[in-house]
Amino acid sequence: MFSFFKRDPIKTLERKRLDKYREAMQAQKYGDRALQADLYAEAEAIEQQIATLRENNDSAAT
Q1: Does residue 36 form part of some domain?
Q2: Per the domain annotation, does 62 fall within a domain?
């Protein structure tokens, strides 16, 4: 009934991914390469989750 109050999980994950990339950029700026690599890995994992959700949404729509 109140499905319009639910947040889109893809948009939420995209926001998290963007935040991770921004944090990684800051880590690179200050020379913390290990933290940068970790943050990029987390961002890529989030990208995989987004791709999986999009595939599931495409499968359900057809």
Answers
A1: yes
A2: no
Cα distances (Å, whole numbers) of residue 57 to 5, 12, 52, 60: 19, 15, 9, 5
- Cα–Cα distances (Å) from 11 to 6, 31, 52, 54, in that order, read 11, 30, 13, 11
Q: How many domains does the chain have?
A: 1
Domain membership flag for residue 61:
no
Rounded Cα distance, 5 and 31, in Å: 42
35 vs 8: CA distance, rounded Å: 29
Can you give the pTM of this predicted structure?
0.83
Confidence band for 1, pLDDT divided at 50, 70 and 90: low
CB 27 within 8 A of CB 42: no
For residue 49, what are the domain limits? 10-55
